[in-house]
Amino acid sequence: MNSPLPQRCLAEFISSFCLILIGCGAMVVDFQTGALTHVGVATVWGLIVMVMIYAVGPISGAHMNPAVTIAFTAARRLPLRDCLAYIPAQCAGALAAALALRAVLGLDESLLGSTQIGNGLTAGAGFAVEAAMTAILMFVVMGVSTGAKEETITAGIAVGSTIAMEAFVAGPLTKASMNPARSIGPAIASGYTDNLWIYIAAPILGALIGCVLHCLIKHTKAEAVVDPKT
């Protein structure tokens, strides 16, 4: 990574803030007005991910997701030091955005249900959905990233499209979080922390599975570790 670590952490904070402000903001607006529909909300999630990858991918890699950061570290694409710095920045950005949404739009079902498993699913089924969706996401991320950076021309389109498609499918089931920070921020802002452990553990497990699967098809155990001095 060419940029200093503090600059990269700031990029992760800003991109995570924008991710939650726009993504969860779309959910709140749709709940209050019905203007966007489920398809619209899923599309917004995909678009904001794509835009942030193009905006900060060359700086921090545009992880915006502790599960992705942990998987990159497990694959030896990112030093542990950077991982430990990225995760608090991502969670802080998500929390700041959730608090901003609560201050402006109020505390409604969209924030209160941020970790609510829907459609009658059990906790175990919800865990499986989040883990599976994150595994697919990480599999794609590994394929289009360079080192620990999502910065190629195709990365934004591929990852954003994956997020949108998974939101189409899993949105009504688990809110299609696939991101511990995305769940932690709204959960703390709303005070609704039921099932939060699922939204932390399942994405991390899923990201590690996706990482392993990608390494298997490439016939390689791991990538070379990034020089921690850079």
TrEMBL record:
Subcellular location: Membrane
InterPro entries the UniProt entry points to: Aquaporin-like (IPR023271), Aquaporin_transptr (IPR034294), MIP (IPR000425), MIP_CS (IPR022357)
Keywords noted in UniProt: Membrane, Transmembrane, Transmembrane helix, Transport
Keyword Transmembrane appears in the UniProt entry: yes
Gene Ontology molecular function, alphabetical: channel activity
Stored PROSITE patterns: MIP (PS00221)
Transmembrane segments: 9-29, 35-56, 83-105, 117-141, 153-173, 196-217
Membrane topology field: Multi-pass membrane protein
Record carries keyword Cytoplasm: no
Gene Ontology CC annotations of this record: membrane
Family the entry assigns: Belongs to the MIP/aquaporin (TC 1.A.8) family.
PANTHER family assigned to the protein according to its UniProt record, in alphabetical order: AQUAPORIN NIP1-1-RELATED (PTHR45724:SF13), AQUAPORIN NIP2-1 (PTHR45724)
Protein name (database record): Aquaporin Z 2
Gene from which the chain derives: aqpZ2
